[in-house]
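Good morning C.,

I know you're traveling, so I'll keep this short. The sequence:
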Amino acid sequence: MPRGAVPAMRPDSESCLVIDNTKHLNRILSLDVAAQRCVVEPGIVLDDLNRQLKPHGLWFPVDVSTSSRATIGGMAGNNSCGGRSLRYGIMRDNVTAIEAIMADGSDSRFAQIDSSELKGMLAVSGLNWSSWAVK
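The tokens, ready to paste straight into the viewer:
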């Protein structure tokens, strides 16, 4: 079961093997100050991310109470929120896409799609999705 730095109060991994090597995947890979976007590795700790963003007048708005040890990957996995969630949203509102390597080694990309993309995907799947309402 892949995960980030999960707090002890979460029983996510009680009955499985956890291999967590994200502490080595802790960098900002790119930063576009004008667009207010960055690409990060999953093991970057929220406080470290904000420390590196601060000189540019930026900060990540999801403010969990465990920010000194919470990793972005773990926060994404839990869809974390915080005290500023009502104003700035939760993780899903602040993440454009996630590129992941699955347990079987395959690459996956998770991102929002619009209804026309969804209709196209459903049309080529060969399944009868006509009962699904896509507007």
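Safe travels,
E.
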